[in-house]
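User
Please review the sequence:
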Amino acid sequence: MKTIRFFILEDMPDFRVALEQTINESAGCNVCGASDSVEGGFEGILESKPDALLLDIKIFGGTAFHLLQRLKDNQIPIPPFIIITGHEDFELAQQAVNDWGQQLVKILKKPVWSYWNDILPEIRAAIIARLNQSTHDEPENSISLNETRDVLYIRSNQMTHRFQISDILFLEVAGEGQTTIVMADGRQVTVRKTLNVLMNLLPEYIRRINRFNAANIHKMQYINHEDDTLILEGYSRPLSIGDPYMQDLKAMLS
């Protein structure tokens, strides 16, 4: 039996915990992550890669629709999702049919416990059907990776850029959902993709070294332990290594 991995987005702690417990006790289902906010949900979905989402509408930092739009804007596939909402938000939830009908599986009204055990197997079957129907196509002309050729293609602002991954020197957050990719030959390209999204596509030798930078460790010249900076081949500006990342870097180099 295939196990469906759910990510829960719900700002009421007691209800969120109850959902987690109930799903984990159900055959063929488990919870791979949970959050109460747009930001936490975005990071959690990137990390856990769930099969399906269980969403309350009103959460900290916005709404579930803000989260879905952020996933879409960053070219991250949106899993099938279920909305659980109160009567006061039900009309708002129905608008999701127009905006997100392809991914929307079901809209459930709170309180759900009176019919939960009956509806969950139906939801699970619908999710499996959606996953089986999926062609797993990437968003049109967005990001593709040819691992055998060590090449990354990124479309951004009506241009498709080709990057030889092994020639990437470092990446730097550019703000507003953008990242600047600096190549060993000096070329610098800013693309409309977050650093988190790009890190999911890149090999392990490109490592996060602080909140704003990731560097190609194969291009490392040396680490200055006096000020915790990284010097890369052919690049004069030192890159700071944040405390949380130093131990990870030392472990990789040991």
